Amino acid sequence: MMRINAKRRAAAAAFTALATAVTGFAVVAEASAATPSLSATAVATPRTTAPALNPATLQQAIAMRPGEAAAGAVALVRSDGQTWRGSAGDTQTGGPVADDAHFRIGSISKTFSAVVLLQLAAEHRVDLDQSVQQYLPGLLPATFQPITLRQLLNMTSGLPQIGDGGPSMTTDQLIAGRFEYQGFRQIIDSTLRPAGRPWPGPVFAPGTAQSYNSLNFRIVGLLIEHVTGHSFGDEVEARIVRPLHLTGTFVPQGAPRMPSPYMHGYLTESQGTVTDVSAAGGDPSSMISTTGDLNRFITVLFQGRLLPHAQLTQMLALPHDAAGDLLPYTGDSGNCQSGPDKGKACFGLGIGTDTLPDGTVLWGKTGEDMGYFTAMFATRDLRHVGIVSTGVTDVAAEAGLEKANRLAAAAFMP
Questions:
Q1: What is the CATH topology of the domain spanning 5-412?
Q2: What is the largest CA-CA distance in the chain?
Q3: Residue by residue, what is the 3-state secondary structure of the chain?
Q4: Which of these, 204, 263, 267, 325, has the minimum number of CB atoms within 10 Å of its CB?
Q5: Looking at the predicted structure, is the pLDDT value of residue 2 above 80?
Q6: pLDDT tens per residue, range 160-217
Q7: CA 57 – CA 391 distance, rounded (Å)
Q8: Which residue, among 308, 319, 387, has the nearest Cα to 349 in the 3D structure?
Q9: What percent of the chain lies above the pLDDT cut of 70?
Q10: For residue range 372-395, what is the model confidence (pLDDT) as tens digits?
Q11: Residue 48 — pLDDT band, cuts 50, 70, 90?
Q12: Is the pLDDT reported for residue 238 higher than 80?
């Protein structure tokens, strides 16, 4: 597994920073628990109407800027029935980026994973409060206490990060190894039973804290395959991609090539050469999508078309302790650091939340893959939705977060 943990933890922190930037949302309280239909008229009527979206301002928000480690961008914004789509051209090739360009979504695949496992729970094929050890005996070393499936989904497992204790890879090594493909079990075993060094133990007792962790979702992916007898990609396609007609969404399962049209992603070698890393191997949960498809995915999800009410409610529930208090957030300094519950758990099941100063609640997910940074966020009542992906040129991918912040501010604080 290509180990870039510090970068991925920084990417996980991006949702908090993104949400903090959109303090200009003016929305009603969260929609009721009643499941609306797919019709736009089912969304609660707002008390106020947001200003009209300004296409020129939105385009400027995603435009390339001097010195920015970015090479292109594509975005979609919905606000009070208005929709805007835009893109910024590839600075490396000089060519345009299509509004329907494909890109790699990184950790946004965690939200897809959570939906599949919650569907299996609704079908009584898994019990979220039973342990990983029950479903996958021997997967975790004996040093780990029982960890429930719910604790995997809401980041309270206490498992170590992928590759913890191992050497970090240089950018040159990442570029050279970009076609590498590793299965779920290979990633899990190399993390929990590494060769040539001590095996890592629990970071904290399960259910006592929250910490963003991608290893959780590699185990979720393996569990989905174990329970269904099908590959992770086949289950995502059968349960989400095909029913929602997400014609631009793919689970490539190791096939490196990108579908056309696509936005290019890059990394810069130590000698300054910019290398196209759009084609890559990844792992079974690696996914490709478009702004239109991610907009439809989060819309249908929040409308209750993907999950029964009970499972959607669980997805949007934050973990609490026995006294009813939110669990503390630990492990990095970026996530869960804004709003009235700063320093407390801010992830539900495969999705994160933030409360803005005006009381607005955002739900969503960010994701990084080599060469890409993507953000997907929405209010629960779907008055406001934003999707933006940036083709970046460095490992830090900070330019992607900056564009997401600028777009959100331009869309909702005109």
A1: Beta-lactamase (3.40.710)
A2: 61
A3: CCCCHHHHHHHHHHHHHHHHCCCCCCCCCCCCCCCCCCCHHHCCCCCCCCCCCCHHHHHHHHCCCCCCCEEEEEEEEEECCEEEEEEECCCCCCCCCCCCCEEECHHHHHHHHHHHHHHHHHCCCCCCCCEHHHHCCCCCCCCCCCCEHHHHHCCCCCCCCCCCCCCCCCHHHHHHCCCCECCHHHHHHHHHCCCCCCCCCCCCCCCCCECCCCHHHHHHHHHHHHHHCCCHHHHHHHHHHCCCCCCCCECCCCCCCCCCCECCCEEECCCCCEEECCCCCECCCCCEECHHHHHHHHHHHHCCCCCCHHHHHHHCCCCECCCCCECEECCCCCCCCCCCCCCECCECCCCEEEECCCCCEEEEEEEEECCEEEEEEEECCCCEEEEEEEEECCCCCHHHHHHHHHHHHHHHCC
A4: 325
A5: no
A6: 999 888 888 899 999 999 999 999 999 999 999 999 999 999 999 999 999 999 999 9
A7: 20
A8: 319
A9: 86
A10: 999 999 999 999 999 999 999 999
A11: low
A12: yes
